[in-house]
Structure formats: structure tokens, C-alpha cells
């Protein structure tokens, strides 16, 4: 279901601003699919080569089973740092050239990964991929904010997240299929091919969405002003913190998944992508439900309810994991993790939309600040929990409990202790 026409007549604009020219880009369904594909390239880059960890460790003589997780961490580090640049640059030169430049960098990283002679060079290639991949994440959100606001934006983001979350279901299977017929380096060839598809599709169909009146100078004072505005907005900072902590839960799970389901605990082998996909599928279902309900119930009601449910489920999960000494039956582990991911997915797209809502006039810079902050926070949390893997699922269960509780505290601080409200609708900054 597309948002009301009144919210779909062009890029978001400040009060009193002249209407933008008629939209000439893709229709609603194609718009969502393209933005989701742009953002989903990150999920492919993270998840598709998880089944290759044993082969990579074998080829590079890596003894520490936790060391391959660094391939995720360095990607997220490059991804997080680069996000701080794409927004201000796109606010000055436009979304299209900034996105195209990012994809070109991603392509270079993919080629380097295919040719990497050592694990250290592979880590460098992953960092370059992260720098390029950040463009899709940042500019995807900025493009959505250019076009939509409020609950409409939350609905569009939910649809984008739904498509985006289908990727983790199929990405490990894609990587496993490549491994079945060839070398793990071919997985990076598949990433390169997908990036070329994004580049061609975006270049052909997506016009510039940044309104001319919202262009900002690319000087340090203007950038600093935009960053200060984004960081100094209580609603933006609080919900970005909550979002980063919840994303940390996902990265902790992704970083630990291969060790838990394959090499370290359950030894599923080729069945690993199935277990991974079942849990990711719960997130896809939740985001679809959120997209259907958000216009009726509002972002805060759905996200606050999902977060409280996640905190409760995380406690239940921890109790069950302790009862089985950290080695529960596989169906029980999949069920509890899927339940946590399901509840978490009611919060994340709404938190992102709430954080962006006050900052329409600096959407690119705001998306950069939010993306930079949430990614680095999530990468740090995910690295700490992932590296704590000890042959049991207890560290992961403790991580879900702690990070979800901290996320709830961040929301309570932001809302001054009042949950489930409608929230103020601030005017965009001039």
C-alpha cells in the first residue's frame, strides 16, 4: 500500500517553500525495490561469505576460530567512518553523483578481495568495500527522507527493510552455492556483479531527489553546523543510540552465527544457511507487519512495544540458555533467536524514521551522522559480544539482554520517561 498522494508529490520541503517539480522517477513499488537493493548490498557483503569462513581460515592458515570475524568488523569500521562523509557531500553535489562514486569504490574493493594474496590484504579489501558500501545505506535513507516524511517515511522504510531483510535469508545460501561449485573468491565476484546491477539500475531510473533549496555548501563550517544540529537534537541522538544498540544485537548474532551453527557448536555444515535463513525470515515478516500497521498505530507505539517485548524475550532466552549450560537443543535456539529478531524488527525501521524526522532540511548530513554513530556503536557492541564466543550461546544471550536493556534506557531518556506517545512533530531546521 503506497502512502497517501499528499505525501508523494515530490521531495520533502520546508514550510512556505515552493513545491518541487513533478516526480519523474520510478513508481512506489520500484522506488522501494531500488532503495532496498541499494541498502541490501551491505547485507550481501556481510552474510554471503559467512559459509566461507572455514575455507578462508584454511587457505590463510588461521588457527584462531574467532579471527575470521574480523572480516565483518573491518567492513563495518570502513562502513561507519565513510558514512560521515557521504551525507554532507550529497547535500552539496546531490545524491546521484555521491552514490555513483560510492559504488565505484565498492567495486574496487571487490576486485581487491578477489585477488587478495593474504588475510591482511583481504581485511584491507573489506575495509574498502565498507567505505564504498556506506553510500547505499546513507543515501538510501536520505533519498527516502527527500521524498517522504513522518509515518509515510516509516512505512517506506519498513517496506525497504522487508526487502532488505530477505537478503540474509538467501545470501548465505548463495555463498554456499558458490562454494559448492568453485572457490570462495568467486563470492566476491558475485558481490561485484550485484554492485554493477545497482549502478546500472540507479543510473537509469533514479533522478536527483535533493531539492535545490536544500543544497548546502561543502565547507567545514556548514558541515560542522549540520553535524551539530543532528547531534544536538535530543530525538535524533536518543533514537540513534537506541538503534545502534539494537543493530549491535544483529552484528553480534551475525558474527557468532557461523561458529555457533557450524564449526563451534552444532556442526550443521551445508544446513547452516537454512538455520540462518529461518531466523532472518522472522525479521522480514515483522517488517512487513510493521509496514502495514505503522500508519494506523504510529511509530512510537509499535517500536516501544517491540522493544519492551524484546527485553522480555531476551531475558527468557538467557534463562533457557543457562538452563541448558549454553548448549540448548537447536530448535529451541532457533525459536528464541527468531522471536528476538521478530520483536527487534518492530523497533529498528521506526527508530531510524523518528531520528530522521526533525532534520528534513539536512537529510544527507543527518543520515550520515546517524549512520556513522549507529554503525560504530553497533560494530563495537557486535565485536565485543562476538569475540566472547566460548563454545556456548551464553555470551550471545547475555549480549541481547544487555543491549536491549540499554536501548530501552536510551528511549526512556529521549522521551523523558513517557512511552507510547505520538511525539512532537517539529518543524525542519531552516
From TrEMBL:
Pfam families: MFS_1. Keywords: Membrane, Transmembrane, Transmembrane helix, Transport. It comes from Methylobacterium isbiliense. It is found in: Membrane. Residues 28-416 form the Major facilitator superfamily (MFS) profile domain. Residues 1-11 have a biased composition (Basic and acidic residues). The gene is bcr. It is a multi-pass membrane protein. Residues 1-21 are annotated as: Disordered. This is Bicyclomycin resistance protein. Its main location: membrane. Signal peptide: none annotated. The chain crosses the membrane at residues 31-50, 70-86, 98-117, 123-144, 156-180, 186-204, 237-260, 272-293, 305-324, 330-347, 359-386, 392-413.
Amino acid at each position: 500500500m503506497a502512502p497517501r498522494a499528499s505525501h508523494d508529490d515530490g521531495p520533502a520541503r520546508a514550510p512556505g517553500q515552493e513545491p518541487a517539480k513533478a516526480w519523474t522517477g520510478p513508481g512506489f513499488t520500484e522506488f522501494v525495490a531500488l532503495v532496498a537493493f541499494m541498502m541490501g548490498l551491505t547485507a550481501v557483503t556481510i552474510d554471503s561469505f559467512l559459509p566461507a569462513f572455514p575455507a578462508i581460515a584454511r587457505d590463510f592458515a588461521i588457527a584462531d576460530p574467532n579471527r575470521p570475524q574480523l572480516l565483518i568488523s573491518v567492513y563495518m569500521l570502513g562502513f561507519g567512518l565513510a558514512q560521515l562523509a557521504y551525507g554532507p557531500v550529497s547535500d552539496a553535489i546531490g545524491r546521484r553523483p555521491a552514490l555513483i562514486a560510492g559504488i565505484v569504490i565498492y567495486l574496487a574493493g571487490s576486485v581487491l578481495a578477489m585477488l587478495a594474496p593474504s588475510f591482511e590484504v583481504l581485511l584491507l579489501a573489506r575495509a574498502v568495500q565498507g567505505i564504498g558500501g556506506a553510500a547505499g545505506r546513507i543515501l538510501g535513507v536520505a533519498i527516502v527522507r527527500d521524498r517522504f516524511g513522518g509515518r509515510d517515511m516509516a512505512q517506506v522504510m519498513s517496506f525497504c527493510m522487508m526487502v532488505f531483510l530477505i537478503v540474509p535469508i538467501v545470501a548465505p545460501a548463495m555463498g554456499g552455492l558458490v562454494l559448492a561449485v568453485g572457490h570462495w573468491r568467486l563470492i566476491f565476484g558475485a558481490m561485484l556483479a550485484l554492485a554493477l546491477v545497482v549502478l546500472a539500475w540507479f543510473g537509469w531510473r533514479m533522478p536527483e531527489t535533493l531539492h535545490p533549496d536544500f543544497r548546502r555548501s561543502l565547507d567545514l563550517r556548514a558541515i560542522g553546523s549540520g553535524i551539530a544540529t543532528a547531534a544536538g537534537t535530543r530525538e535524533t541522538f536518543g533514537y540513534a543510540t537506541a538503534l545502534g544498540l539494537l543493530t549491535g544485537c544483529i552484528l553480534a548474532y551475525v558474527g557468532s552465527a557461523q561458529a555457533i551453527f557450524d564449526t563451534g557448536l552444532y556442526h550443521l555444515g551445508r544446513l547452516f544457511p537454512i538455520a540462518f535463513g529461518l531466523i532472518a525470515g522472522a525479521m522480514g515478516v515483522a517488517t512487513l507487519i510493521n509496514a502495514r500497521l505503522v500508519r494506523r498505530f504510529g511509530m512510537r507505539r509499535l517500536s516501544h512495544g517491540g522493544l519492551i517485548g524484546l527485553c522480555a524475550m531476551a531475558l527468557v532466552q538467557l534463562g533457557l540458555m543457562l538452563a541448558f549450560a549454553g548448549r540448548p537443543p537447536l530448535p529451541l535456539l532457533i525459536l528464541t533467536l527468531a522471536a528476538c529478531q521478530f520483536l527487534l524488527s518492530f523497533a529498528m525501521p521506526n527508530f531510524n524514521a523518528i531520528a530522521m524526522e526533525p532534520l528534513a532540511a539536512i537529510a544527507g548530513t543527518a543520515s550520515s551522522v546517524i549512520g556513522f554513530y549507529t554503525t560504530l556503536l553497533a560494530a563495537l557492541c557486535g565485536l565485543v559480544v562476538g569475540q566472547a564466543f566460548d563454545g556456548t550461546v551464553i555470551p550471545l544471550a547475555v549480549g541481547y539482554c544487555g543491549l536491549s536493556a540499554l536501548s530501552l534506557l536510551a528511549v526512556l531518556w529521549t522521551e523523558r520517561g513517557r512511552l507510547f506517545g505520538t511525539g512532537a512533530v517539529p518543524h525542519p531546521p531552516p
